[in-house]
Amino acid sequence: MNLPRISLAYLRAKPLATALNLLLLALGIATITVLMLATRQLEERMTRDARGIDLVAGAKGSPMQLVLSAVFHLDAPTGNIPLAEAQALARNPLVKRAIPVALGDSFRGFRIVGTNHDYPAHYGARLAAGKLWTKSMQAVLGAQAARVTGLGAGGSFTGAHGLGEGGEEHEAEPYEVVGVLAPTGSVIDRLVLTSVESVWEVHEHGEARPAAREREITALLVQYASPLAAATLPRFVNATSALQAASPAYESARLFRMLGVGVEVLRAFGFVLVFAAGLSVFIALTNALEERRYDLAVMRMLGATRGRLMALLLLEGLTLAAAGALLGLALGHALTEALGAALAAQQQVPVSGWTWAPEEGWLVALALGIGLLAALVPAWRASRAEVAPVLAEG
Amino acid sequence: MLSLKGVRHRYGAREVLRLERFEAAQGEKWLVLGPSGSGKSTLLHLLAGLLKPTQGTVEAARPIGIVPQKLHLIASLTVAENLLLAQYLAGARQEPARAAQVLASVGLAERAAARPHELSHGEAQRAAVARAVMNRPRLLLADEPTSNLDDAHCAAALDLLEAQAAECGATLVVATHDARAKPRFGKRLELAA
């Protein structure tokens, strides 16, 4: 017999109240955990995907849409840009490296990206099998695209028009899979890479080839040659060409600020649930004082010190809080994993429940603090309870 | 042994007990007899150290075992756990073997794992006595142990208390308004209302 066993015995004696308090606390902790894990992974992922890309040049329109489509492959492009203008920009002395991106088709929901070999090199992608494309209509699959479609080097497929599933298939222009990339943990895992020429070829449908100056691409991913470029190049692009310059860092930050409002509302809801659980524990323990006045008197009669009675009530609050926090964390991770599975099914940014955020430690500390606080007043009152009048009651 | 000298106890302005002298040698059996409101329970609580007298001194050998009138077994614990709780809260070493032995001596060997609400009144009373003697008390106090019992059960309850007190070598003090207990106790303290 010891204080934890006595506390557990009291909690077990009230299974419904204990379960409801646990559930309330666990739901609050789970809500905050899901938001914490999802936003953290999303931010990490987007930061990783945009690393080394200082500017995106694309068709005029929404700069955020341009970045989302050309860098993160999450939105539809704003349009196409003349290849000649993109090449002129690439030759600018303020540009260290420029990678073309040509979009338009997809394969089972995975975007087909026309580009050059600098693109996989930029993301540090290595081949798991086969080789990179060397001529038109050859394709290399990202790790996730290969895993989901089951295709490998030597296979073939036809792209579908549009960036989602269900578009018209270009059956006359099949791609040959020549390689599969190893997982990188970046956007490239869920892409199908090919040459820009392949994208042009698929969309010409056997018509006469347009002149080079009439060719188009979707966007140009630019890396600055010097910090000076950040101050001058975007303005130069916007003012002197038909192109639009957008900064992935700025647009990502803007996106998170916009998402942040919704995230903060949900997070606040989670905290409200946690504090409501604390209040519920307080009410439960306060009611328990009245129900247990005889028990507490008997314990004092049997020799319990006031401190030990106080510790008993505090331990009950802490036990509920610790169990609720652990249950909430487990639920939060399970829900994040389920969210990740749903996103993966739509070829969206992957999120995993099998990851740990350092802030979760603070979340457990918060739950324990609330449990302790909720139990403090009932515990103090229990320790001050008079024994003899209670035992003398007939 | 136990000793009370010049004891007065008041609840607010109301004096509930006045006792100039009361002494009992170790191992004696005492009956404190008196009607409701005569201060019997207050006397037991003073002896147990649960109350401090408003005036006077109280000395009693320790440890002390108490059987309260309402028994007050902890409902969320088993009978055996109730016994071990007495040792734990008194800061004594916990002895499951002692609990089994005491339960056997009060005829509850088979009810060790039962919860208090599963016991009959007689069984609960025996469990409360068992809890009171778990720490081998030098003083065993019982408050109204025969109330609402028929003659047979009244005798059985007093037999049990006497046997357990003798087993521990404890001084036994039984407080009651029940005159049926009177013939069994040679030493009596009668309190007036």
Give the % helix of chain B: 25-40%
Largest sheet of chain B: 5 strands, parallel
Mean pLDDT figure of chain A: 90
Quickly count the helices of chain A. Answer: 13
What does this structure look like?
Chain A folds into two domains: 3-46 and 262-392, no CATH class; 55-246, no CATH class. In chain A, 56% of the residues lie in helices and 16% in strands. Chain A has helices at 3-13, 15-50, 63-70, 83-90, 118-122, 143-149, 196-204, 228-240, 248-291, 293-301, 306-345, 359-384, 388-392, and strands spanning 55-59, 81-82, 95-107, 110-115, 127-130, 138-141, 156-157, 160-161, 175-181, 191-195, 216-217, 219-224, 243-246. In chain A, strand 3 and strand 4 (110-115) form a beta hairpin. In chain A, helix 3 crosses helix 9 and helix 11 (306-345) runs antiparallel to helix 12. The mean pLDDT of chain A is 90. Chain B is α/β, with parallel strands linked by helices and 193 residues long. Chain B folds into two domains: 1-62 and 138-193, 3-Layer(aba) Sandwich (Rossmann fold), CATH 3.40.50; 75-134, no CATH class. In chain B, 32% of the residues lie in helices and 26% in strands. Chain B contains five helices and eight strands, in the order βββαββαααβαββ. Chain B has helices spanning 40-48, 79-89, 96-105, 121-133, 151-168, and strands spanning 2-11, 14-24, 29-33, 55-60, 64-67, 139-143, 171-176, 187-190. In chain B, the strands form two sheets. A five-stranded parallel beta sheet of chain B has the order 5-6-7-3-8, sandwiched between helices. A three-stranded antiparallel beta sheet of chain B has the order 2-1-4, covered by helices on one side. The model of chain B has no long low-confidence stretch (mean pLDDT 92).
What's the layout of helices and strands?
The complex is a heterodimer of chains A (394) and B (193).
Chain A: H1 3-13, H2 15-50, E1 55-59, H3 63-70, E2 81-82, H4 83-90, E3 95-107, E4 110-115, H5 118-122, E5 127-130, E6 138-141, H6 143-149, E7 156-157, E8 160-161, E9 175-181, E10 191-195, H7 196-204, E11 216-217, E12 219-224, H8 228-240, E13 243-246, H9 248-291, H10 293-301, H11 306-345, H12 359-384, H13 388-392
Parallel strand pairs in A: 4-10, 6-9
Antiparallel strand pairs in A: 1-12, 1-13, 2-11, 3-4, 3-8, 3-12, 5-9, 6-10, 7-9
Helix pairs in contact in A: 1-11, 2-9, 2-11, 2-12, 3-9, 9-10, 9-11, 9-12, 11-12
Chain B: E1 2-11, E2 14-24, E3 29-33, H1 40-48, E4 55-60, E5 64-67, H2 79-89, H3 96-105, H4 121-133, E6 139-143, H5 151-168, E7 171-176, E8 187-190
Parallel strand pairs in B: 3-7, 3-8, 5-6, 6-7
Antiparallel strand pairs in B: 1-2, 1-4
Helix pairs in contact in B: 2-4, 3-4, 4-5
